[in-house]
Amino acid sequence: MLLINSLSLTSNVNAWLANSRQPRVLHVFESACNLINEHKDVLSVVSQRIGDGPFNLVVEDNVIFLDHLSLESPISNFPNGLKIGDLTINTQNARLWSPRQDWKILYARRENVLALLPPLPVTNYEFLVSNLQLFNSLASALVNADLPASINATQKLAGLGIGLTPSGDDFIMGAILAAWIIHPADVAEVLAVEVTEVAAPLTTSLSGAWLRSAGRGEAGILWHQFFEALISADQTSIQESMDKILSVGETSGADALSGFVSSFAAWSVEESTKHE
């Protein structure tokens, strides 16, 4: 039996712990273990190296989950704790972290965002080129707050690609995060919720969880650092934060940033047309 303390969690994690009666292990990796309950809600127990996320329970020790857990490991949750296999996690003193960004600050600075972004390296080239029309359609629809067109493009993109978070989903997520900055909060919320609720059932459980989080205006710590860098307009911080996102997965971070940048590029075109 290994007892470990948690460093941080979110209100989503607290809700998962309170409402789960039949949880099971979804995935086990070296630095993370994803759990899913009977409501298809996901909780990720992660090491400090991965850090805060919308549904992350960050543990203190650099435990190697593969050494302790399997897909068959039993799970039980109790007040201020969680037991998975031979791991007992104490959540009593964990810091509550908010995954929701302050979008009003970014909205006020939206006109400067595209100019602050350095060029993205070309990754996942074949996938991006073969689906360029779909990507452009979604970005344009979101920028114009065209909900039917956004949903139509989303239905074709969701689940497109391979992996636990397919490339199409990652692009959608990045585009939704951009929409929270481009539009006033009431407009962004409608677009974000409707689009992500359409996308989530069409893809993997983990990817659906990330999409729904974006629909609520939530993001992981690396995106928070990126947004803080944009607010400060510090080019070095912006590049460093983008590099960290680009390092996520084989192409996940790059695909999400492509969705974000493409949406701002589409918005810039629309804005310049208005002023002609």
- Derived from helix and strand composition plus strand pairing, the structural class reads alpha/beta
How would you describe the shape?
Answer: globular
**C-alpha-based Rg, rounded:** 19 Å
From the structure provided, what is the oligomeric state, counting identical versus distinct chains? single chain
H-E order: EHEEEEEEEEHHHHHHHHHHH
Number of domain units: 2
Mean pLDDT: 95
Strand content: 5-15%
Q: Poorly predicted ranges (pLDDT <50, ≥5 residues)?
A: none
Ends apart, CA distance between termini = 68 Å
* Helicity, as a percent range: 40-55%
Largest sheet: 9 strands, mixed
The strand count comes to 9
Q: Which tags fit this structure?
A:
276 residues; alpha/beta; 2 domains; nine-stranded mixed beta sheet; 12 helices; 9 strands; 15% strand; globular
Indicate the topology:
Blueprint: E1 2-9, H1 11-19, E2 24-28, E3 32-36, E4 42-46, E5 56-59, E6 75-78, E7 81-84, E8 87-90, E9 95-96, H2 103-108, H3 110-116, H4 125-130, H5 132-143, H6 147-157, H7 167-182, H8 185-199, H9 205-215, H10 221-232, H11 235-246, H12 252-274
Parallel strand pairs: 1-8, 1-9, 4-5
Antiparallel strand pairs: 1-5, 2-3, 3-4, 6-7, 7-8
Could you explain how this protein is built, in words?
This protein is an alpha/beta fold. The protein folds into two domains: 2-96, no CATH class; 103-274, no CATH class. 51% of the residues lie in helices and 15% in strands. It has helices spanning 11-19, 103-108, 110-116, 125-130, 132-143, 147-157, 167-182, 185-199, 205-215, 221-232, 235-246, 252-274; strands spanning 2-9, 24-28, 32-36, 42-46, 56-59, 75-78, 81-84, 87-90, 95-96. Strands 1, 2, 3, 4, 5, 6, 7, 8 and 9 form a nine-stranded mixed sheet that branches. Strand 2 (24-28) and strand 3 (32-36) form a beta hairpin. Helix 5 runs parallel beside helix 7 (167-182). The chain is globular, with a radius of gyration of 19 Å.
